[in-house]
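[[Sequence with tokens]]
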Amino acid sequence: MTPSARCQAAIEILDAIEETARAADSIIRRYFRTRRYAGSSDRRAIQALVYVILRKRGQLDWWCQRVGVEITSRSRVLIALILCSPWERIAPEDAFLPGKYGPAALSENEVASIAASRGESLDHSAQTESISLNIPVWLEGLFCSEIKDNYKIEIKSIESESDVDLRVNTLKSSRDEVLSELRNSGIEAMPTPFAPHGIRLERRSPLTGLSAFRNGLFEPQGEASQLAAALAGAEPDQSVLDLCAGAGGKALAIAACMRNEGRLVLHDIDPARLRRAEERMQRAGVNIHETQIATVSFSLGKISNEEKYDNVIIDAPCSGSGIWRRNPEAKWRLNAERLGEHTVQQHDLLKIGAKAVRPGGRLVYMTCSILAAENRDRIDEFLTTAGTNFELVRPAADWRRVTGQEFEAAGGDLQLTPGRHGTDGFYVAILRRRVE
């Protein structure tokens, strides 16, 4: 593809991201699936441009306004080519050459904007902090204390590209064995620093064609998510309810913690996600699970009020702010109304999940969020609600059990952050139902 064709592809993808609620990586995959002529180098170049725009959108929009062009996908691409240099040695004039597969020719105003921004830096002293950090201004005061205490470093960490982590399926293999298989396939990798069965790739590589993946020896899963599943404390022969199971990522990890012994119930409102979970369970060799589809959103569905579990896990729907490194488009889609809807759902899920915990059992609440309203605020509200018969369990012992390391934080819950831990932002609160 020519630079101009790549440029037009980036514009089309960005427009699609603006127009739909689907994740950017899903939109990109679908785009290239119907355009087989795009080679691997074309796809890499287009994706690099798209993602730098999603990560730096606040500053790019500021520059569009400064040089006097309307804020559109096209103008963001133009300014990014000048100030972010995602394509070395490609001038914006060359990327906007008109042609059959390229964008429309540059207007006089766009030519003037190139002249006005050429030689400048993306960072500018006139930018406010929220603009320079590419954070919507309404979010500035809503982050958890762990982010606020080291604000600039944490937010800059969110802008970086996330690592690719794998979780070894201990029902079938070991970390050393999978590391060896990966290296024999030409994929360099290393153990993750905290998760005991985690592997981190040195660079992104195709995985689904590997025999180790097809045989269920590993699953892609971020280290923070692996830790959350392990900290839940599910044990062999227990009964465990995964209330918002989705496609089963955490349930797979929990089944391994249970050594495929006991009962594991995957509950979700989406039948398609549960079908995907079933496929993954079969590949991993898990046979202790069953799936239950909720008939009403965020209800117990088929689950009886009299049925109690040793461990109830709530991986609650949330803003996804902790995985903005993976899904930077989500940062710009979030608004106060949507955040409010999430917190209502989280409140309801805690009440629902609590009813299914046996005396002495655990209720484990987790989100991939770094916003206080979705995490500590929800737990504080739950614990102060009249009739709540739960107590917070400090994570120090579980952290030591899982990681072999001492727990440094003083609080009664766990907030992982990109800057401090090198993981996605992830929150975990472990609650125990009192024995009456």
In short: The first helix runs from residue 3 to 19. The longest strand covers residues 357-367. The domain at 3-123 is CATH 1.10.940 (N-utilizing Substance Protein B Homolog; Chain A). The mean pLDDT is 92.
